[in-house]
Amino acid sequence: MTADPVDQARRLAHARFPDALAAILAGSTAAGRATPGSDLDIAVLLPDDGASYRETIRFEGRVVEFFVHTRTGLRELFAADVAARRAVLQSMYADGLVLVDRDGAAGEARALAAADLREGPRPLAPETVETKRYGLTDALDDLADTGDLIERIAVAGFVLDAAADLLCDHRRAWLGSGKWLPRRLLAADPGLGAALLDGHLRACASGDPTALADAAATVLGLVGGPLREGYRRDWHGAIDSVAARRP
Question: What is the pTM of this model?
């Protein structure tokens, strides 16, 4: 009989972190969508004499990812996630299942996380939006010009990421990567997000980039339109590669 993953997470948290102030089970397991192959994502809050780190182990046949941090470390990580416009750790705390709560520490952390999520990410600077517009415009030109199917699929992935970045900023919504990209994109704009995802799927399945290009062009229209001629960016400080300047 397969062990209950929530029970596994609770037993592991108590055994491995007896001094924890809080422990939160996040991800598909906390949401009740666990499969036999689902891992356990557990955020652990320690006193400030502890350490902040991330660690992956295997427990009773299941992969476990620990996100361990002190109170000070948690605030620093929350700030970093806000700056990155992703709020991954905030979502873990706000939406996860409480396994350990000593003296209300879990509730305090959840309240901080919820406040960040309500406020949303800070808008990108106009100069940054301009650079991202230029990068997406350039990628759409490549998408239309290349006759190589493998190159087209690779460019289609870049177009999806770049358009999602601009759309989420325009909607003041959080970004995501991996499986969280479609989730966050649909939360930011259900209609246009779905158009981007469906267009990307079609481009990869059939090689036809038309729907993806149309959806990405709509995103560009929301943020100032395509940008080619007239774009200029002066180098400041250390010189990055040209590729690094693309969104």
Answer: 0.86
